[in-house]
Fold this sequence. Notes:
The structure is a homodimer. By secondary structure, the first copy, chain A, is α/β, with parallel strands linked by helices. The first copy, chain A, has 17 helices and 30 strands. In chain A, helix 6 runs parallel beside helix 7, helix 9 (359-376) packs parallel to helix 10 (391-404) and helix 14 packs parallel to helix 16 (538-552). The mean pLDDT of chain A is 97.
Amino acid sequence: MSLPAKRPSRAVISIVKPSIDCGQYFIKRVIGEKVDVYAAVFADGHDVVAAEILYKHESDTQWSNARLNLSVNDDWYGSFVVEKQRFYHYKVRAWVDYALNWQSGLIKKALDGQYVQVELNDGLPLLEETLKLIPKSIDSASYDFLKSTVEYIKASDYLKSLEACTSKELKTILEKYPTRKNSVESPEYKIWVDRPKAGFSAWYEFFPRSASPEKGRHGTFKDCEALLPRIADLGFDVLYFPPIHPIGEINRKGKNNSVTSKPGEPGSPWAIGSRFGGHDAIHPELGTLEDYKNLLAKAKEYGIEIAMDLAFQCAPDHPYVKEHPEWFVIKSDGSIQYAENPPKKYQDIYPFNFECDDWQGLWNELLRVVKYWVEQGVTIFRVDNPHTKPFKFWQWLISEIHKTHSDIIFLSEAFTRPKIMHELAKLGFTQSYTYFCWRNTKAELTEYLTELTTTDQREFFRPNFWPNTPDINPWSLQGGNESLFMIRLFLAATLSSNYGIYGPVYEYGIHEPYPGKEEYLNSEKYEIYHWDWTRETRLTVLIRLINQIRKTYKSFQTTYNLTFCPVNDDHLLAYYKGDIETGEHFLMVVNLDHLNSRQGMVRPPFEKMGIPVGTHLLMQDYITGNTWTWYSEYNYVALHPNVPFHLFKISKA
Amino acid sequence: MSLPAKRPSRAVISIVKPSIDCGQYFIKRVIGEKVDVYAAVFADGHDVVAAEILYKHESDTQWSNARLNLSVNDDWYGSFVVEKQRFYHYKVRAWVDYALNWQSGLIKKALDGQYVQVELNDGLPLLEETLKLIPKSIDSASYDFLKSTVEYIKASDYLKSLEACTSKELKTILEKYPTRKNSVESPEYKIWVDRPKAGFSAWYEFFPRSASPEKGRHGTFKDCEALLPRIADLGFDVLYFPPIHPIGEINRKGKNNSVTSKPGEPGSPWAIGSRFGGHDAIHPELGTLEDYKNLLAKAKEYGIEIAMDLAFQCAPDHPYVKEHPEWFVIKSDGSIQYAENPPKKYQDIYPFNFECDDWQGLWNELLRVVKYWVEQGVTIFRVDNPHTKPFKFWQWLISEIHKTHSDIIFLSEAFTRPKIMHELAKLGFTQSYTYFCWRNTKAELTEYLTELTTTDQREFFRPNFWPNTPDINPWSLQGGNESLFMIRLFLAATLSSNYGIYGPVYEYGIHEPYPGKEEYLNSEKYEIYHWDWTRETRLTVLIRLINQIRKTYKSFQTTYNLTFCPVNDDHLLAYYKGDIETGEHFLMVVNLDHLNSRQGMVRPPFEKMGIPVGTHLLMQDYITGNTWTWYSEYNYVALHPNVPFHLFKISKA
């Protein structure tokens, strides 16, 4: 290590956050969101140190800067807001601030009664340097103040120069116009900024083949069109269909996932590809490409985007199998390897071999498929089991799509180990399914939400909470208890700004499990259902109400303004959403015990609201319409399973 | 992001530990220490993944490898031992193990009763690849086994090939000879390996000028020589002197740091430089360079190294001030800036201006000084206030010295904010002073030691515990209570493998403070003391005993084998040192209440010792010589302030 060529900075930036895996991955935001930056900054000795954030949009040529403020023990905090989609860059800059340091020492000596003529003179070159930085035409006040300060010193006017040099005004000027001499910069970090829907969305899932109003007829995209007003009225803005491609006929699965199907059984939509085409085709019984595009357009009118399922796997009769057998694993007997998780076999599915010799051909073809659908107007993809395809594949595919279409949202359907789910999120997935289905108790929910909203995960892993999916009929809902259905819906929709339901099944309380499994009996995955879409349940009404509240109040449009509140019952969960900036304050109290009434004393987070403890609060319950006044720090709540939650809008009484 | 040119690995290494600030800094070890490596490793899908550590000494041309074993949730653990001084490199390598994956699937299918002839054939190319990797001459058993396995498959001998392919033997062979196809590697990290003394040392500090046996005479190096047998007998292996250079005569400080000194007052040794020379000279009253070198040599015979104080600052009459005024801050009136911490002034000290225009000249001169003393035989430097000099300076200086002299130990005397102390340690300081002086209660000690021994700090920050120094007469010892002196010594010497005392002051219980400060009244920093070195106190006896125990048992030669043990009294601190590997087990119990007897029930850490709970234990107290048998999980202890600790050697009864 030879002596550096340039005089090294004395300032050190030892930590910058957020920074995911040493800056290897970008963090994520949506337009208008804040980036809170932390930095550990210090220098040797006792000199005054200054630091700032530098940030810019990829289209900017110049950096903007934002203050970093010293808290304690060399911890600095600051923030900035991202206003445009696509990449931002940020870094931290720090320096020993010679001018501020000189002023700080001068003030201490002056207060000590020392004669400081020499010190005043010492400051002259520092002040003259600062003077050069002030744009006289824009900030004449600062310029004039500093100019006369310099003149007082030059004139050896002790009293006037002492007064000016120790003034607050000078401090403000020196802070505003730092010379940044010998500054040091941190590495650069990146932010990917999405459109707002990436951070706030309500998903409704149904099988388009079950959309027909006539029992026994296969549903079509036209039938789906007719349901759009209903979905819009319920307040959903994403409509997600299982795959709409031709369904394989070879080894087609029957009712309840049986290995063979009877003639006429429709098969699983995830077994993609048949003589009617593959991933870029449409299942003939649903309609034509034109029908699908009409549906996309019609949905748009209702403020609804239709999410496409991206399931990169093939039925044995998928055209790829004949055209590109080299894209699959060929066994020693010449057959193509079907999917398996030994000893289990899935003969209706051929997985791609992403490592095959022609991997580049395969990857490019799959990218072509995604681009094709983007060109048809698809804006959201729900990606099926991304964790069974190489991570590098997704990183490449998503970044390729985002190059030209930064609006596209990818939801990762990976229900697997934490690090794998996180890796997918880091690589570019916009939103992710979560463990919400298996977090039921107060302790579980508190721990999980704390992890999601307060650790590094908040920077890259955007949760999307689903109380059920066609694959998951969770233990907790298998009893069919209506309170539990309401509780789980309420939790999903108020804890997470992104949430979704496998809709009709949830609304109508379908709950019978395949014995011993977290799956539905007679799952819609293998058969066509018929729904009476005109029917409304208490769940339907609740969903409409909650979605309305979510749309009206900003507090529910982010997942990251959550604070849990003390309440002295292990079955009562209380949480606050809101902040001083928006001025919105909501308190939710949920009775997690679906069998018994529960009572307790709740403490609203006065500190978060910026309201003194004990201020009288008006509590308007937007669920029941009742209003209470709370007079104390701890306040009584009682919840019966019949309406097992409060959603309070808080205002000063 | 265009398609990568090479087929990307499906394996992902997302975390490697230890890695300090993204690998920006090296970790530290001493010869013979273990490096425990953690990695987060996974791949897409369900395939079997394998991973290993690669490591090598800077002089090695080839990497060695060490196993990484999967624990749970993609967490992998492994370790290796460093055996030579200077830099090591390490990294992690991971891959999808196609052969192991094939065998694992085969076994599951076979156990399920499936006919697996095709699967056996599928394995043939994998096994043939492995066969090529086995050195037949060295490992003929593996080679022969695999060779015949291949032949069974080729001969379609179903039963024999099935037996061989599903065997444990084959698994062991596949693990031992992985093809590592499509592997991925983490970034490289570095370790600096020191000689053993960096990790285990006992320091004794005294002022050589107070070494004279005759009261009123200035002590000399020759007087110090006479004290070596005593220091060695007490069990210390580092003798540290405050600066031995000529002491400034201009603005010399008097008794109790008074601004002016009376004629004959010796001044502070930290005000370096006078007409007799500067940092490369010796204070004439101590002796000559020859005397100093003789002392170093003599000390070596006693197993003692003499640490030099590196205080990079100048008295006003230091030769540099005349020869190189450009190395200091020149004020606007032409005077040289003395040290200050406004409004406080230190007119006897001129700090260097490490940012002066001739900073390279200054830095090179200071490096020359250190090199000069290294050439005279100095092997250990205690660096005075390194945090008031630029971090980059130390990084450069230490690495320059270590290039040619990796034996040199630097102790950082920075009592300041945590991040600054850590930064200095990261930049290369071998050992660091700590907050030990201000950690007195059970909670404080437990928290601090947990931080030092279980967080990232253990990788780079080697604590050196000092109960007192010439600068610190801690509040806790100002009462002069003998029990507290014993307790603090015992804690320092048994909690930290590196410890030291400002010797005679501690042995003889000097404790009177300068009023209102954590400093000594009539501090030896400003005057010459006379000691009756023949005198021994209870402290002297305790020190000798503890140092003897530390030298005898490996358990006390590392700081990182510490476990706190439950004991139900807030003034009793119980901790274990030892491990299964050495087979040594020590339990310390300390009564932190120096005024009252305390009793409680202690639980030895049976799990750490690898001994079933409830095993009868023989507890030999090496302090009192008493022996007890403990029959239970929790065992009774009672400690009186008179002998306020146990040091138990544990063995099975």
